[in-house]
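Task 17 of the worksheet. Students: predict the tertiary structure of the chain below and write it out as structure tokens. Keep your answer in the requested format; marks are given for formatting as well as content.
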Amino acid sequence: MIPFRPMSATSEVPAAFRNAAGDRGPLRLVGEGIADIRSRRRLVRYLVQADIRKRGADTILGNIWWILDPLLQMVVYVVFLSIVVRNGPPDYPLFIFSAILPWKWFSASITDATTSIVRHDQLIKQIQFPKLVLPVAATTAGIVSFAFGTVALIVLMLFYSSHFSIYLVFIPVIAGVQFVFTLAFSFLVAAGNVFFRDLGNVVGHVLRLWWFLSPGLYSLATLELVFRDHPTLVTIAGMNPFAILFEAYRMVIYGTPTSPPGPPNFVSLAVLLIASIGFLALTTFVFKRLEPNFAKVV
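Model answer:
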């Protein structure tokens, strides 16, 4: 009789990554991930509704907060940069709000997705279902909150009516690109947080640093002037996904300090979309490789 040898806690994570997927290749795992989401659409819908209720987005107070919070952030930055520093562009509140709103959507979605697996630990241990739907639901619920946040954008644009234009119809297009990138990132942090519980704290600090390194408080044109003697730094800054997204949102909402709103840079958006799809395939593969061992770790 072969004696039973329990797996040690110290060796569980490496063994999980090596053996979780068996002989299944990357393409098969990605295909299974897509099939998991498509076959569990009703479960995703239920989890999205539950996540919205958790956030309070289906209550009056929750909706109002999603309108007030980005406006309050905008006021803080406007006061600091326009009054203290005195170097903001014309109509600076609208300039900065066009970046604050999509960033709030991204940061809130990633924060929720990070704990989407571990906070359902009892459910994972009791019921067999594709765990990929959990970060999908957390990320999808953020779309509803973002939609409520656009109410604040409409209110703000009433004060800057000269920026109203037909190009606002491109906001959903830009948001679609952002959603693909956000979903890919959420798969990565959701799976990683199962094995490294401190990842949630790290993500918070990374998001804070990421915001200040992105052209949210300033434009890429301003960065080019500041670092005109260091073009490599400008190139690196331009490769930031949120440099592309912020510039796209700002172009259709605000325009530039010297020109009215116009169409976004579709070439940059297309490049980001293709890169995000590749990133999504990679993180889906990683998630599916680790998925069979989530119940053992949580």
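Marker's comment: Confidence is low (pLDDT under 50) at residues 1-21. The CA atoms of residues 1 and 15 lie 25 Å apart.
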